[in-house]
Amino acid sequence: MSSAAYDDNNIFAKILRGEIPSHRVYEDEHTVAFMDVMPQAPGHVLVVPKAASRNILDANPATISHAITVVQKIANAVKDAFDADGVLVIQFNEPAAGQTVFHLHFHVIPRHDGIPLKPHSGKMEDGDVLAANAEKIKGELGS
Ligand code: 5GP
């Protein structure tokens, strides 16, 4: 494995341990999904496996397999919750590819025709807006 070692002090590991708050929309035995604090569009969700891996390069294939089924579930939920025209799924590996938090995660972002994507890791969203958007998604998930 050529990438750096996993560091369990990364921000998503702290969120998974409950040391830092997040607006959760979904949780199962292997995966958590919560709102991105610097959304690239309203309804931007991060799907995060509970198992420790830095990114897709060092993850257990079973972890990836399960996570992608959750990505599909969340993609349908955000599409319906935000009446989106499409859904963007992004996943970055290592700084050269744009990764900034080194615990495997998938971005799920509702897209609307003609509305440009905001910058990656751009502006912090208001907590009330994130909470309201999380409720909309949870409504679609029935959770
Ligand atoms: P990456 O570049 O690693 O794929 O993206 C990390 C994502 O995590 C970014 O979109 C950024 O906005 C988001 N993020 C960074 N810190 C936090 C945080 O403390 N809480 C949440 N919910 N998202 C975060």
Mean pLDDT, all residues? 96
* Overall tally of domains: 1
The CATH topology is what? HIT family, subunit A
Backbone structural class: alpha+beta
Share of residues in helices: 25-40%
Task: Indicate the overall shape.
Answer: globular
Task: Give the topology string: H per helix, E per strand.
Answer: HEEEHEEH
Shape-level CATH architecture: 2-Layer Sandwich
What's the arrangement of strands in the largest beta sheet?
A: 1-2-3-5-4
Small-molecule components bound: guanosine-5'-monophosphate
Counting copies of identical and different chains, the oligomeric state is single chain
Helix tally equals 3
Instruction: Calculate Rg over CA atoms.
Output: 14 Å
- Main sheet record: 5 strands, antiparallel
Low-confidence stretches: none
Q: Indicate the proportion of strand residues.
A: 15-25%
The CATH C-level name is: Alpha Beta
At the fourth level of CATH, the homologous superfamily is: HIT-like
Q: What gap, in angstroms, lies between the N and C termini? A: 38 Å
Total strands: 5
In short:
With 143 residues, the protein is α+β, with helices and mostly antiparallel strands. The protein has a single domain (11-142), classed as HIT family, subunit A. 29% of the residues lie in helices and 17% in strands.
Account of the 3D structure:
- Helix 2 packs across helix 3.
- Strands 1-2-3-5-4 form a 5-stranded antiparallel sheet.
- The protein has 3 helices and 5 strands.
- It has one domain (11-142): HIT-like (HIT family, subunit A, 2-Layer Sandwich), CATH 3.30.428.
- The protein has 143 residues and is of the alpha+beta class.
- Residues 11, 22, 34-38, 92, 98-101, 120-121 line the site of guanosine-5'-monophosphate.
